[in-house]
User: Fold this.
Amino acid sequence: MTEFGDLMRRLMAERGISLHRLAKDLNYNVGYLCKVRNGTKPAPRELAARVDEALSAGGELAALAPERPARRRGPGSGPAVVPNGSRRMAPEPEAACVLPSAALDGITDLWDDLMRRRAFLYHSGTAAMMALATPHPALPGPPDPAEAMAACADLTAAYRRLEGMLGPGAVYAQAAEHQRHLMAWLPCVRDRRARRQLGGVAADASLLLAWLCFDLDDHNRATLLYRQSFELARDLGDVNLAAFTVGRMSRTLSESGRHRDALRFAEAARHIADRAAIPQLRSWLAVTRAYVHACLGDERSCRQDLDAAAVLLRGGTRATLPYLAFYGPPYVHKWSGHALVALSERKAAPASAQGRAALDRALTGWSRAEVRESGEVLAAAARARLAQHEVDEAVHLTARACDVVTVTSSPRIMRYVTDLRQQLQPWRHTKAVIELDEHLPPGR
Assistant:
């Protein structure tokens, strides 16, 4: 614990002020304040002054606020298990660049602002913000840390594969406990190289857990976990991890219909990646950013990003980043289809046929192991058919997406199916839609 955190804890106890009450008084995230109190995050001077005032510290706390530390030069990506299945840790790649501290501070401010405003409305209605996570108690590490880290990386990869086949509910509890143990182990590691390796493994586990929350339509929880992954990336100086995490946050915002906020995060991710991140990651950032531009009706920027995504993917080698292993040509086709269909719904009618063709290419090349995500592609393809008034084919694809929901119990995919059924309402008396209603689960 830092001197600041120790005094903050003592003053809170003396004055009978809980962490939740202090967070409410300061309009700050309680999880963030908890980290400041426990010494795992430094207190910015502005926050220190406000805490000092709230606790009537007479300037003692404000005087203990540290200067913002300079960011270290670090590797371009986190550790990964060697693809051939070896249990050793993969060698760390060469350093890409120094993470731009000022830009990262701005992203942190964006994140904190979203969390303070409780920005998300759940698709099932307005929901109360989840109770923010308490700090993880430190746990002693295993006798062979390198072997344990490799095993943990393998376990995260296994949960990721299972989630793709069986859906988020099949692995959520195990993945959450796995991530909790990794975050509890991290403070106990003193060796710099080992801490870097474990930080990468913990960040990957946090990214997986955040994605599970996203698929379960718990966007508030996903936001907190992406924020946690971003802080790990920042501490590691990992350009790829930082850019990917900010890109995932943009994806979460666009899914919630907050497209202007999504664009701010998408542009921030591009700024982090610049030319330092690997081409495959920059391609993924470009194609997901294209969708945001499409949702905002910006056809020129959308098409520029789609072109850039295709060029970057062709020009780069296959990445070993565990959190980006999913990305390849079928995903470019999927997001190109998403973006072009969204564009056609807003302004560019010819984009509808182009979007349909891209989604058909995605379906043709889709891996059979990625069951849950195939539901998203099927639903998007149904939407493209509906835009061209091909009702029977849209119903057929919607029914296939519903079959994916049956296997994976994904609330997100079920939401896509329900939205499609609403769009099919004008044809509710047709044989195809009546049969679809019989196919859908009760209480959809």
Notes: Residues 68-98, 121-135 have pLDDT under 50 and may be disordered.
